[in-house]
Known about the structure:
Elements: H1 2-36, H2 43-71, H3 75-107, H4 115-139, H5 142-168, H6 173-208
Helix pairs in contact: 1-2, 1-3, 1-4, 2-3, 3-6, 4-5, 4-6, 5-6
InterPro entries: PhoU, PhoU-like_sf, PhoU_dom
Subcellular location: Cytoplasm
Protein name: Phosphate-specific transport system accessory protein PhoU
Amino acid sequence: MLRSLFHQQLDEVANHxxxxxxxxxxxxxxxxxxxxxxxxxxxxxxxxxxxNINKNELDLNERVFDIIARQQPVASDLRKLIVVMKIAxxxxxxxxxxxxxxxxxxxxxxxxxxxxxxxxxxxTDARNMVAKALIAYKxxxxxAAQQLAKLDxxxxxxxxxxxxxxxRQDVGEPxxxxxxxxxxxxxxxxxxxxxxxxxxxWIIYEAxxxxxxxx
Length: 215
């Protein structure tokens, strides 16, 4: 009876991860749209939503602490609970990056360069990495988690090329600030992809108890 309750609690916190993940993806979608469509009005909503994500992460951690205290799990069950907290923390940081991206996008509303479309595509691909990591976690799919490392390498390469091209442009003084802000956004996007890779590392750790650095 107690064991059945414990596994029910494990399933519940895993489901909460999916809910937190969905909220984080929604934040990324809003942030990318605010940049791609030059929509400064959505920034306030993104910042407000972040408060809920922060609270949900804290609530989830408290739930895990309570389960550990009451059930005293060992071995693989303890790993599952540790991974829940680690993934929740990484998702919260991704949501923070969505806020940062949106804030910088607000300053870029006047910018009309081609880099906006290229950066939007890069951001969408990083966002999709997070989505794939969440699916791999739900399905306990270690192979799918491992494949995210290759996608991260591709994002890193595109990020590097984007930055090189950005700073090689012959720009006037008024455009220097715009280029700097675009570089900030590119860095935020690259970090989002890194966190997606972190998620895959936790999936692998939950499965076999070994931590691999996929970044």
